[in-house]
Amino acid sequence: MTPGRSVLSGDLPDPTPVYVISVAAQLAGMHPQTLRTYDRLGLVVPVRTTGRGRRYSARDIALLREVQRLSQEEGVNLEGIRRILELERLVATLREQARGLAAEAMRARAEVDHRVAEAHASHRRGELMPMTQADVVLWPAGRRHSIWLRRRNQS
After folding, report:
1. Of 12, 135, 141, 152, which residue is most buried, by most CB within 10 angstroms?
2. The pLDDT value given to residue 112
3. DSSP string spanning 51-103?
């Protein structure tokens, strides 16, 4: 994993759990007991089978390698690694939420633009604009640009 690249980003390998602990340990270049320790500490938690066996995915293998890199190359202790992974998960969640909010804002903006365009088009055609909570629109003689509204709750 390159520095600055999140282990939990969406471009990781398949999350399907297929590897037993011995194969996962071999693929990650670790001892199976290390994987058990990481599982117990909550660093890399594999899927459990009905018989309580651990199944690791390719994504878990990449995460194991990142934990090993942080520990050996960067000198980060296991609590620090746990915190790093927790923050990366939070960042990934927030990025996903931000993408969703951005898409929602774009849809809302498109809807507003559409409604404004409809209002302008109906005004150009000479159609009346809808008025809310108004009974009467009065144009007194001699005052062409004044609009008086009598509200429903007024006498």
Report:
1. 12
2. 93
3. TS-EEB-HHHHHHHHHHHHHHHTS---HHHHHHHHHHHHHHHHHHHHHHHHHH
- Answer for the pair 42, 52: CB distance below 8 angstroms, yes or no: no
Provide the β-strand partners of residue 136: 150
The string over 8-31, giving b where at least 16 C-beta atoms fall within 10 Å of a residue's C-beta and e elsewhere, is beeebeeeebebebeebbebbebe
Token pair belonging to 15: 């999350």
pLDDT digits (tens, 9 = 90+) for 41-76: 999 999 999 998 999 999 999 999 999 999 999 999
> With a threshold of 0.70, does the pTM exceed it?
no
Q: Which two tokens stand for residue 78?
A: 């296991």
Rg (CA), the chain: 31
Q: Where are the domains of the chain?
A: 1-127
What number does CATH give the domain 1-127? 1.10.1660.10
User: One-letter amino acid identity for 30?
Assistant: M
